[in-house]
Write a structure and sequence with these properties.
Blueprint (H helix, E strand, L loop, with lengths): L10 E5 L3 H13 L3 E5 L2 H8 L6 E5 L7 H9 L9 E6 L3 H10 L3 E5 L3 H39 L8 H15 L4 H13 L9 H4 L7 H7 L2 H9 L9 H6 L20 H15 L11 H10 L7 H13 L1 H17 L1
Parallel strand pairs: 1-2, 1-3, 3-4, 4-5
Helix pairs in contact: 2-3, 6-7, 6-12, 6-14, 6-15, 12-13
Length: 342
Amino acid sequence: MPDANQKPAAHLLVVEDDPAMLIALRDILESAGYVVSPAPNGQVALEILGRERPNLILSDISMPIMDGIELFDSVRRIPDAATIPFIFLTARGTREDIFAAKSLGADDYITKPITSQELLAAVRARLQRTDELLVAQLKAAYKASLRALANAIESRDQYTRYHVERVNAYAQAVARELAWPEDRLETLEFGAILHDIGKISIPEAILRKTGPLSKDEWAEMREHPRVGARMIEGIPYLAPAVPTIRAHHERWDGSGYPEGVRETAIPETARLLAIVDAFDAMTSDRPYHSAVTADQAHTEITTQSGRLFDPAMVDAFDRCYQRGDVVRILRTYQALDAGKSS
């Protein structure tokens, strides 16, 4: 019985005018598990493309009726086929063909004669690179969508613009100072983007209140980390960010919320986010206070080292601040904000 989770076999369009070579290429590739559509020239290949969308095109260059160069040019003019990886086959020593393939922007080229190992290695490498690019593109689109959602939620609390972007930029700078690996940087990024997503449950009257919150209002506000964590805990791709979202208002001495945990019981990503979120809050106009200078906010952060904030995280933040990284980020977004307001 087929595995429902098994990835479908890649579909290859192989274009070659030599019948014996075409059969050999097809046999090698099909034996390796690929689905192959054979074509004796570029014109037939275009007819096939009218019905099918292969994962990769492998084409000879020198062919009658329509050669590989003409085929490549035609494929790149088809909107939904333009990104299909294209590998040229060329006879050994035809430098003009190789130059033409490179100048056109072909993904790869293989010189004949070719062994089955060389052929399969080239095809697998190209398909893998394409998969990696698609994953990267999907991640970028996903993050852009999450940012749009987070900013839409933040806009209900009219105190600031670019809050999510600034907090993430500060957090990434400090994390790199701490030499965090890439996977943790991505977890931190999702935590930074979504840290206040739970505010969707908070009434605007509370978010925009200029005076002190009542006891009931404050109790409702303190629940937004839990609400945000519950919102995404069932999404596997975002699940690693749940601890950051739940704990970003916890404090080193246990005075934070919603759980009141302390010191290293607070997730490392949340300890870092607590610092940069506080810095951004202090340097932004809020309904209940006007922005302070970066130096004033920096002084407050360092003063609270060992009380509200993890001392090691504060030291890393301080190094970034002294080097000018933090202020550069702040000024960049202040300039964007001023340009959008003008």
